Amino acid sequence: MRMPHAISWASLPDMQIQYGNPAFDQLFGYPSGHFRTAAQLIAEAYIHERQRERLLQHWHAFNFPEDVELISIPDIEIDILSGTGEIRTALHCGMILPRQKVSIAIFKDISGVTHDHRMLREYAFLDPLTAVANRRGLQERWNEEATLRPGKRLAFIMVDLDNFKPINDTYGHETGDAVLGIAAARLKAVMRDSDLICRLGGDEFGLLLAAPEGQDQLDMICRRIMLSLMTPIHIGPLNLHISASIGGCLYPDHAANQRELLQRADLAMYQVKKTGKSGWRWWSAATAPLDGNSPRTD
Fold first, then answer.
1. Got the DSSP string for 75-108?
2. Residues with a known catalytic role
3. What backbone phi and psi angles, to 5 degrees, belong to 105?
4. Is the separation of the CB atoms in 82 and 88 below 8 Å?
5. Can 6-117 and 126-282 be said to share one CATH topology?
6. Domain segments of the chain: what residues?
7. Beta bridge partners of 157
8. Per-residue pLDDT for the chain (298 aa), expressed as one digit of tens each?
């Protein structure tokens, strides 16, 4: 009987693909035997960096103790660039058998049913004005990071636009909305595709990213943001200027959970705001206000 779904199995720990059924070859659009290892498959066929990273995490599960009989790989939606140039979407699941040193992968082609689903997701998780994530999108990414890599070092950067309110009040909401859209586009341009950029509301944005090592790298990120936002904005005959007050916090270095991470980045940003000057500041216990857990009141 011919299996309706694409199936492959590979040996562990070398990740050598030993078998792929005809449905596997059809889904990925390459000749039988083209993919020799799972690493090659992920590198060549999976489009998105985050999906590649997540799948590779499961491949390392063969290091589990030998008394574990079976490790299930939960459903993961992946976007595939096939050998024919088509982009397809598949639901990937499977299992790892540590004792047998074998991994079995199952792919269900769901390309035909994802369009409406993605439109609904965009409506739910994207800010319609700026096309970056909204608060729900931020929460989803946090949940994903916490599940995928518990304890992974993360940085959250709060960006509040300076001089935005006078622009909005003087030239109207249409101009203000255009400025917000340009600011969001500039943030995307200076950050990596894997970093999450979200609009928290009004003229506040947030960035969630893997925490780089060293204060110099953290400051370099903030400097890039500042320089990008300080570049004059041209809208019709208008030549507009904004800047930013930036606050950052590291998890789990200086925050125990998501709520504390955002709150302390916000507090650090407010300390910059109080000076009346644009710039950035990273939260630390040494420089925190006495009431370090209190939300700002502005």
1. EEEEEEE-TTS-EEEEEEEEEEETTTTEEEEEEE
2. 203
3. -120, 140
4. yes
5. no
6. 6-117, 126-282
7. 207, 248
8. 455 789 999 998 888 999 999 999 999 999 999 999 998 999 999 988 878 887 777 666 556 666 777 888 888 888 999 999 888 889 988 888 888 889 899 999 888 765 556 666 666 888 989 999 999 999 989 988 876 677 789 999 999 999 999 999 999 999 999 999 999 999 999 999 889 999 999 999 999 999 988 889 999 999 999 999 999 999 999 999 999 999 999 999 999 999 999 999 999 999 999 988 889 999 987 766 544 343 443 3
Q: Are strands 102-109 and 87-97 parallel, antiparallel or unpaired?
A: antiparallel
The sheet carrying 71-81 orders its strands as: 17-20, 6-11, 102-109, 87-97, 71-81
Nearest Cα to Cα of residue 51 among 88, 72, 9, 79:
79
Give the tokens for residue 237: 């005959």
Structure tokens at 250: 């590291």
DSSP code of 294? P
Is 6-117 assigned to CATH 1.10.10.60?
A: no
Q: Determine the distance from the C-alpha atom of residue 280 to the mean position of all C-alpha atoms in its chain, rounded to a whole number.
A: 22
Task: Give yes or no for a contact between 195 and 138, defined as CB atoms under 8 angstroms apart.
Answer: no
Considering the domain 126-282 in this protein, what is its CATH number?
A: 3.30.70.270
Task: Annotate 149-213 with DSSP letters as a single string.
Answer: STT--EEEEEEEEETHHHHHHHH-HHHHHHHHHHHHHHHHHHS-TTSEEEEEETTEEEEEEEPPS
